[in-house]
Amino acid sequence: MAEQAAAGLLWVTAGRLDELTPDSAVRVDLAGLPVCLARSAGAVHALLDECSHGQVALSEGDVEDGYVECWLHGSRFDLTSGVPTGPPATVPVPVYAVRITDGEIQVALPAPATDIETAAGTPS
Ligand code: FES
């Protein structure tokens, strides 16, 4: 289910909070956009599920203390900002706003990526 957010953004349901284990990540496809949904340090975060160094899935990395570590070469990304803390990655990964409504995780996506109404996915 999708709902209009601020200009240029659309809130898309990504799954349920109780299905996302603390210090873990899952990949969800939202309107064709691969999103890494991670729960850590008391919050849920959403970022593009693609390392900016080698284009592998960040959702397959380890999550701890508000960071996800790329499984391939070890760069750690701040889940709040998407900024890598060290090499080899040097470019931030796009992050998306998250809100929890009645136990549902909703992610604000850029409108161009959400022009398909049946955008919702669920963590697997
Ligand atoms: S592919 Fe992620 S750090 Fe190299």
From TrEMBL:
InterPro entries assigned: Rieske_2Fe-2S, Rieske_2Fe-2S_sf
Coiled-coil residue spans: none
CDD domains: Rieske_RO_ferredoxin (cd03528)
Keyword Methyltransferase: no
Keywords associated with the record: 2Fe-2S, Iron, Iron-sulfur, Metal-binding
Domain Rieske stretches: 12-107
Signal peptide range in chain numbering: none
Organism domain of life: Bacteria
PANTHER family per record: 3-PHENYLPROPIONATE_CINNAMIC ACID DIOXYGENASE FERREDOXIN SUBUNIT (PTHR21496:SF23), FERREDOXIN-RELATED (PTHR21496)
UniProt protein name: Non-heme iron oxygenase ferredoxin subunit
Originating organism: Aquipuribacter hungaricus
